[in-house]
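If it is no trouble, can you show me the amino acids of a protein and the tokens describing how it folds?
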Amino acid sequence: MATRFGSINIVVDDVVGLTEFLTALGVEVDPVDPDWHAWIRHHRSFGAADDIDADLDSSRFAADWGGVSTDFRGVVVNLQTDDRDAVDRGYVLAIERGAVPCKAPYDAFWGSRYAVVESPFGITFGLMSPSDPNRTPPTFTP
């Protein structure tokens, strides 16, 4: 299974407040709906031309997509898999290695297969397949 770092979700109570803080520091952040989340596109080179995407999400929203508790504050590190089946295999392997399940593999609204676990090391990880445009609602644009 080829799995690699893909993106991070920064989960906070106050997305608007954090957006204002980051904007004051010079970070470009798209306008935010406080009941949704803000997309940050932060591109940084690692060797070739790999990108890391960071999303700001409210705790309430993260509970929906990630199965974490509504009082979760922190970072979810998303690992990109090669295909949808690799998410299911990786989830089982993570549980066998001592991870606590947060969200079993499911077909997410953005078109990816997705699962979330908390590693035995206190880091929360998402496992995410590539997005399939045939599985993305027409009203959703990431």
In short: The radius of gyration is 15 Å. The CA atoms of residues 5 and 79 lie 5 Å apart. Residues 4-135 form a domain with the 2,3-Dihydroxybiphenyl 1,2-Dioxygenase; domain 1 fold (CATH 3.10.180.10). The helical segments are 15-24, 59-66, 84-96.
